[in-house]
Amino acid sequence: MPKVKQITVTCENRPGTLASLANILGKSKVNILAFNASSAGAMGYVQLIVDNVARAEKALRGKGFACYEETVIHLTLPNRPGALATYAGRLATKDINIGAGYQTTVEGSDKASIVLAVSRPAAAAKIR
To answer: Where in the chain is the domain with CATH 3.30.2130.10?
Structure first.
């Protein structure tokens, strides 16, 4: 499972913000592979896995967005009951904490795509 860079963008919590971010990246020829958006009051953040981190950061900063990157793990699990519990349990037995995560799949698919921010990405990347 690959370790990847995730970009977190701080932004306003208002209509059109996600569209604006996606437009900036699209015009910069950066493909979004995964994203998670959240907010607290007037502020929000968008976490992005993209195909070109350097180009994405340059484009976003050029438009006034603050962003930072961190290493996360991006893996595929079976799309079945208990798969996440099994994997999270394996991380726990190695004393690896999950600080944040998101997952998606398409109904009927046999695989789910998972992104996890963990305390020890290099160690977590070795766990199957």
So the answer is: 3-71
Q: 3-71 sits in which CATH class?
A: alpha beta
87: left (phi over 0), alpha (psi -120 to 50) or beta: alpha
The residue ranges of DSSP E strands in 20-96, in sequence order, are: 32-40, 43-50, 66-78
Question: For 72-124, which CATH class?
Answer: alpha beta
Per-residue pLDDT of the chain (128 residues; tens, 9 = 90+): 589 999 999 999 999 999 999 999 999 999 999 999 999 999 999 999 999 999 999 999 999 999 999 999 999 999 999 999 999 999 999 999 999 999 999 989 999 999 999 999 999 988 88
pTM of the model: 0.87
